[in-house]
C-alpha cells in the first residue's frame, strides 16, 4: 500500500470495524497506524489484495501486535477479506505476500494470535501457546519461513 495511499482510508475503515473500535482506536488512529507500517526505513508492511483492480482485502506485517509477547516479531495481523471476495483465495494470497515480505526482511519465522486457529493450522502454522485475551482463548501461532532472504 506504500505506493497507493488512496487505499489507506478504505483499509482503515475495514480494520476499525472489525477490530479497532473494540481496541479503543479511532478511525484516524487506524489510518495513522497503517501509514506507519509503510515507512521506507521500517521492516513492516500494509498490503492490499486487488480483484479486478478493486481492493478486496488487506493484511499487515508488524513488529508488535501482542503486548505480552514483545519478544516475538514480526506479526501477521489484521488479515481481512471483504465478504464478497471470501472463498476465492484472497486470504491465502495476502498471507503468502506477508510471509514473503517477512522472508525478504530477513526473518526466519512469523507470528500471529487468533481466536480461530484452525484456519491457520490448515496452512501449516503451529500453535506455540494459548493465552486469554479478555475472556476468550487465543492461540499464539508461528510459521517457520523456509529460506529467509538475507
Automatic annotation (TrEMBL):
SUPFAM superfamilies linked: Acyl-CoA N-acyltransferases (Nat)
Keywords in alphabetical order: Acyltransferase, Transferase
Gene3D superfamilies, per the entry: 3.40.630.30
GO terms, molecular function: acyltransferase activity, transferring groups other than amino-acyl groups
A Pfam family the protein falls into: Acetyltransf_1
Domain spans labelled N-acetyltransferase: 1-146
Protein name as catalogued: GNAT family N-acetyltransferase
Natural source organism: Paradevosia tibetensis
Highest classification ranks of the organism: Bacteria, Pseudomonadati, Pseudomonadota, Alphaproteobacteria, Hyphomicrobiales
